[in-house]
Amino acid sequence: MEASPLGREDLSLDTDTGHLEHHLGHTGAHGHFLWAVLLTLSFAVIEAVAGWWSGSLALLSDAGHMVTDSSALGLAALAAWLARRPPSSRHTYGLVRLEILAALFNGLLMLGLIGWIAWESVQRLAAPQLVLGDAVMLVAGIGLIINLLVAWKLHHGGMDLNTRAAFLHVLGDLLGSVAALVSGALIYWLDWLWVDPILSLLVALLILVSALRLLRDAVHVLLEAVPGHIALDEIARGLAGISGVHSVHDLHVWALSSGQVALSAHLDLEVMDDWPRILEEARMQLRLFGIGHATLQPEQMPP
Question: Within 10 Å of residue 76's Cβ, how many Cβ atoms?
Fold first, then answer.
């Protein structure tokens, strides 16, 4: 491997394309994923209209939950598609960070939705509003069936990263549909109008958990922190354990996106002539950690 103009060795492993294809999924799994997102988003619109007509905040909350989940997954898929554009002289890593920006945007959108649900719930607890319990039960029951169907299709359509994320989101939507169904039943049979805003707050908590996790992961990547599944000290020990390497310093590991990890480090060598062999062994070490971009700087130990 030839040295770069800056005198560093760039370990651009051939795993990058594999990471991206795995992230997008195979054709069949990706088709199931898009089908699930479109079906969920379409019913969310129907549920929102039904919630407004029936006066049910629980239905509106569940619709909001489904919309945020669908839009988050849809934008993630769009960003991943855009990220396939090749690097340029201006964007040398390409557009892989668009996925992270989409996640950050959706997390903030979720927080706004949570604030609206909480405000409306407090208002309705203070002044209960008429809710058509039978209409709520009907729409929530249909939503439960759709979510079960989507979960089944996703489970049998492959489990790439996007599809697994969609499956987990649908499980959350299932809980929202169950909450709306319970709300409608209690209002219809017992005339408990207060249960609608209470269950809406529970749905808001579900959204909050997803939003905080999404924001945490997005900020973690934007701050170029070490990915959670990677132990920095293990990488340092592995590189330092290569015969001919005296020490490792200026070691940095960060995520370019959810599926691509980069590394840079300086290696103090006992003999510079050993660098080709050390580089090959370092390549093998880093492949074990799933690191696809690595820049290693060899340095001669002082006499």
Answer: 24
**How do residues 112-124 score in pLDDT, each as one tens digit?**
989 999 999 999 9
Asked if residues 99 and 258 have their Cβ atoms less than 8 Å apart, the reply is yes
Percent of the chain's residues with pLDDT above 90: 44
Residue 15 lies in a domain: no
Q: What is the mean pLDDT of the chain?
A: 81
pLDDT bracket for residue 16 (50, 70, 90)? very low
Contacts of 261 (CB under 8 A, 6+ apart): 227, 230, 253, 254, 255, 289, 290, 291, 292, 293
Q: Are residues 70 and 142 in the same domain?
A: yes
CATH number of residue 105's parent domain: 1.20.1510.10
Q: Residue 71 is part of which domain span?
A: 23-222
Residue 138 · residue 180 · CB < 8 Å: no
- Whether residue 234 sits in one domain with residue 208: no
- How far apart, in whole angstroms, are the C-alpha atoms of residue 93 and residue 106? 23
Whole-prediction pTM = 0.73
Domain count, the chain: 2
Closest CA to 241 of 196, 209, 191, 288: 288
